[in-house]
Amino acid sequence: MGKRSISYHDELIRSLKDSNERAEYINAALEEGDLKLLLKALRNVAEATGGMTKLSAKTRLARVSLYRMLSDQGNPELASLEKILRYFGLKLSVQPERAHPSSQR
């Protein structure tokens, strides 16, 4: 009998249980500059950290609102995003863009 194969999604969810992996994963999605990709990443991290019901209870954001804001058409408010990231053990941060024209004088 061979080894049981693990799907990519299952392996991803397993890896996202680690806060460092979560941070790298969400930062990679942010760097792509695609909101749909970021929202998908946040949904995957939510799944890895206990699901939408647990996220709703811990952030005090309605579960239906979480599904809506993290859907492909979602557009979460900054305050909601901060609550979600805090629950994931993460925080927002800003860094200077490399070689941005406005930083050159």
Helical stretch tally:
6
Output the structural class.
mainly alpha
Q: How many domain modules?
A: 1
Unreliably modeled segments: none
Distance, first to last CA: 66 Å
Q: Mean of residue pLDDT?
A: 91
* Major β-sheet profile: none
Quantity of strands, as a count = 0
Indicate the radius of gyration in whole angstroms.
Answer: 16 Å
Strand content: under 5%
Work out the helicity level.
55-70%
How would you describe the shape? Answer: globular
Sequence of secondary-structure elements:
HHHHHH
Could you walk me through the main structural features you see in this protein, from its secondary elements to its overall organization?
- The chain has 105 residues and is mainly α.
- It has one domain.
- Helix content is 59%, strand content 0%.
- It has helices at residues 8-15, 19-32, 35-48, 51-59, 63-69, 78-87.
- The model has no long low-confidence stretch (mean pLDDT 91).
